[in-house]
């Protein structure tokens, strides 16, 4: 909930002692950002999170530094943590980068007849069981589906590079589905088509599906900050 001073009032966290405090704080704030409870452009204060999580401010600071490194927030002196906004350019750049990496993975899998991981089909079945309006678990499974495909190549450096896109990938996916809820059904169809093409070793079809799947949607991009900047009249 946005307060009058521009900061966000966090929901009360459920108690848990299974993980270290800094990890629990990190996961809690990250989920709140992804779900949109901490909106882009708003501030989060250490004291608020400390109170909600019932921990000292030290693990909150540690979690904030990790979230800043993953580009969820910017830490501003004497102001707190500013939640970063997903911009139109960031979405376009992310999709371009993913097309390069995943397009290469598709080509290698089909050309070299690399076995398609069974886990990809399992993940899609799990996604089908999620209600259309529950985007948070869906974006995590979506990330795993694509990461599993890239991981099938056995190239650890490439997998690490792709993994580094994870936080941006999740924020962009949450933003896109929140702006365009109908995208959920299209994603489901495209995932199945991509998996079918990979299993058949049909590189041309797999590439075509991937290009469609990772094409920035104008209706989504146009509603993000920064859209149209730098373009001619």
UniProtKB/TrEMBL annotation:
SUPFAM superfamilies in alphabetical order: GntR ligand-binding domain-like (SSF48008), Winged helix' DNA-binding domain (SSF46785)
GO molecular function: DNA binding; DNA-binding transcription factor activity
Keyword annotations from UniProtKB, A to Z: DNA-binding, Transcription, Transcription regulation
Annotated InterPro entries: GntR_C, TF_FadR/GntR_C, Tscrpt_reg_HTH_GntR, WH-like_DNA-bd_sf, WH_DNA-bd_sf
Name of this chain's protein: GntR family transcriptional regulator
The keyword DNA-binding is annotated on this UniProt entry: yes
Keyword DNA-binding: yes
PROSITE patterns referenced in this protein's UniProt entry, alphabetically: HTH_GNTR
Domain HTH gntR-type positions: 19-86
Phylogenetic placement of the source organism: Bacteria, Pseudomonadati, Pseudomonadota, Alphaproteobacteria, Hyphomicrobiales
PANTHER family linked to this entry: GLUCONATE OPERON TRANSCRIPTIONAL REPRESSOR, TRANSCRIPTIONAL REGULATOR, GNTR FAMILY
């Amino acid at each position: 909930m946005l307060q009058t001073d521009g900061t966000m009032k966090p929901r009360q966290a459920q108690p848990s002692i299974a993980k270290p405090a800094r990890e629990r704080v990190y996961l809690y704030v990250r989920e709140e950002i992804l779900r949109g409870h901490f909106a882009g452009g708003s501030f989060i204060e250490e004291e608020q999170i400390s109170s909600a999580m019932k921990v000292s401010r030290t693990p909150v600071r540690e979690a904030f530094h990790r979230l800043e490194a993953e580009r969820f927030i910017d830490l501003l002196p004497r102001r707190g943590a500013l939640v970063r906004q997903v911009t139109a350019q960031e979405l376009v750049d992310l999709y371009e980068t993913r097309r390069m990496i995943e397009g290469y993975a598709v080509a290698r899998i089909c050309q070299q007849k690399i076995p398609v991981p069974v886990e990809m089909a399992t993940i899609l079945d799990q996604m089908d069981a999620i209600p259309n309006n529950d985007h948070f678990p869906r974006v995590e499974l979506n990330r795993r589906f694509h990461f599993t495909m890239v991981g099938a190549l056995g190239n650890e450096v490439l997998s690490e590079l792709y993994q580094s896109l994870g936080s941006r990938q999740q924020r962009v996916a949450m933003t896109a589905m929140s702006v365009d809820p109908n995208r959920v059904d299209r994603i489901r169809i495209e995932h199945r088509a991509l998996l079918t093409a990979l299993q058949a070793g049909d590189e041309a079809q797999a590439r075509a599906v991937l290009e469609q799947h990772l094409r920035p949607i104008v209706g989504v991009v146009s509603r993000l900050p920064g859209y149209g900047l730098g373009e001619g009249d």
